[in-house]
């Protein structure tokens, strides 16, 4: 069974630009969550999508947005990039998003802002 | 406001000995706890979980203990192997409200010395 796939693996942008990251969940999984990981910090929850609907949102500014498609693939968009947005962005999927189910992570997209 | 805390950023253990990683939480709504392991340049991998109705869960060399009254959990690895060297994240979730989202600690870097 293929795992969670994130593209691209690495991305370099400059301040003020915008970026779109992509996540393909494990086949059959309908819940996709996004996390930001910065040095010294744990994974900070961004948002969760289930059946094309945002079901839960973390404490991030409106510059961070996402969407989910009918095939459960998800994209995350960050507009007006800031230096502090440099981080590893991780996507995770689970079958139903039930909090009592482990989530399965992709290898992440490393975003660097110059 | 860190709801899940891992107070030891790093831990070094001799091969064959026991590794004990600790985690504290503050949100009483959490009722499901997980440990993830993360190697560099890879996404976190689910290791073991425990529900709040139990106080111990074992899977091979890995055992998780939960002390609900102290809001504390720990991961024991016996015996430790060099391949266990990784960053270990503790995470927690609950069934309602903001606790539904998976909340992570900041991680502990475990180094197992040969």
Brief characterization of the structure:
The complex is a heterodimer of chains A (114) and B (114). Chain A is mostly beta strands and 114 residues long. Helix content of chain A is 0%, strand content 51%.
- What is the structural class of chain A? mainly beta
Q: Quick one: which chains have the greatest interface?
A: A-B, 24 and 29 residues
Nearest-integer average pLDDT of chain A: 93
Number of helices, counting only DSSP H or I runs of 4 residues or more of chain A: 0
Q: How many individual β-strands of chain B?
A: 11
Q: What labels would you give this structure?
A:
heterodimer, A: 114 residues, mainly beta, seven-stranded mixed beta sheet, 51% strand, globular, B: 114 residues, six-stranded mixed beta sheet, five-stranded antiparallel beta sheet, 0% helix, 55% strand
Description of the molecule:
The complex is a heterodimer of chains A (114) and B (114). Helices cover 0% and strands 51% of the residues of chain A. With 114 residues, chain A is mainly β. Chain A has strands at 5-7, 10-13, 19-24, 31-37, 43-50, 53-57, 64-68, 74-78, 87-94, 104-105, 109-113. In chain A, strands 2, 4, 5, 6, 9, 10 and 11 form a seven-stranded mixed β-sheet that branches. Chain A has a four-stranded antiparallel β-sheet with strand order 1-3-8-7, with no helix packed on it. The model of chain A has no long low-confidence stretch (mean pLDDT 93). In chain B, strands 2, 4, 5, 9, 10 and 11 form a six-stranded mixed β-sheet that branches. Helix content of chain B is 0%, strand content 55%. With 114 residues, chain B is an all-beta fold. In chain B, β7 and β8 form a beta hairpin. Chain A binds chain B through residues 4, 6, 33, 35, 40-45, 48, 56, 58, 90, 92, 99-100, 102-108, and chain B through 4, 6, 9, 31-32, 34, 36, 41-46, 49, 51, 89, 91, 93-95, 99-107.
């Amino acid at each position: 069974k293929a795992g969670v796939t994130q593209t691209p693996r690495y991305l370099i942008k400059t301040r003020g630009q915008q970026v779109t990251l992509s996540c393909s969940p494990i086949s059959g999984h309908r819940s996709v969550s996004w996390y930001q990981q910065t040095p010294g910090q744990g994974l900070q929850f961004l948002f969760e999508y289930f059946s094309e609907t945002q079901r839960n949102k973390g404490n991030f500014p409106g510059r961070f947005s996402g969407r989910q498609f009918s095939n459960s693939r998800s994209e995350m968009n960050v507009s007006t990039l800031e230096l502090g947005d440099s981080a590893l962005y991780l996507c995770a999927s689970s079958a139903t998003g039930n909090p009592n189910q482990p989530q399965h992570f992709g290898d992440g997209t490393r975003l660097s802002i110059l | 406001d860190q709801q899940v805390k891992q107070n030891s950023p790093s831990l070094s253990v001799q091969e064959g000995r026991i590794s004990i990683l600790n985690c504290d939480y503050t949100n009483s709504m959490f009722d499901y706890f997980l440990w993830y392991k993360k190697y560099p340049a890879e996404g976190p991998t689910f290791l073991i979980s425990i529900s709040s109705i139990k106080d111990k869960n074992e899977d091979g060399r890995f055992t998780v203990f939960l002390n609900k009254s102290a809001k504390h959990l720990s991961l024991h690895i016996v015996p430790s192997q060099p391949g266990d060297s990784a960053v270990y994240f503790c995470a927690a979730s609950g069934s309602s409200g903001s606790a539904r989202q998976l909340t992570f600690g900041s991680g502990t870097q475990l180094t197992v010395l040969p």
